[in-house]
Amino acid sequence: TMVIILGGIDLSVGSIIAMSGVLGAAAVVWWGLPEIVGILIGVLSGVIFGLFNGAIIAKTQIPPFIVTLASMNIAKGIAYVYSGGKPIRCMTDAWKFLGAGYIGPVPTQVVTMFVVFIIAVLFLNRTRMGRHIYAVGGNDTAAKFSGISTAKVKFVVYSFSGLMGLAGITIASRLYSGTCTSGESAEMDAIAAVVVGGTSMSGGSGRLGGTLIGALIIGILDNGLNLMGVNSDW
Question: In the structure, what pLDDT confidence band is assigned to residue 55 with cuts at 50, 70 and 90?
Fold first, then answer.
């Protein structure tokens, strides 16, 4: 949402999901590290790619579409090469908690989603950087003449998008394995959820509440069709 409000695009989110899940599971299964360290490694790998995207987009004139298309292929390549194209199974209770556990009667991933959502809402609506995101998305040149560091804003937004590699760890936990095919077409679902939620693709306007509704609509359609037994080809 923040990337699109900024007037940009991030095509790498699906590949970051795959890569972060693979690296996180590998850290636990192959390296013998504690689960919390594996989770942090997976999230950190996403942050590194977010920093990579943000630095190039902020400091060069290369369009975000091209930059994130490149990082999409790089991240996906890392996931395939590192895993050898095979799932990395991780069945420990601590690993499964993030994606398949419960906090009381509530699934852990639902709690994670709302925590991230609340943090993002506060960041976008209650901080100076959040206001700058809207300003840069509305008119990059005017924002620059107003004294806003547009390069810094772009760098922060794409870094935050990379931080959402947390989704990759959550999916790997839910599936009990890190797989290089996780997150396929996730970037399309993400963009669809944002647009359905009312965010303008031209930048400058949008709300996270709308994105939450858009994500629920996409998720309910996907899951509902599965529950109805509709052939996946349709």
Answer: very high
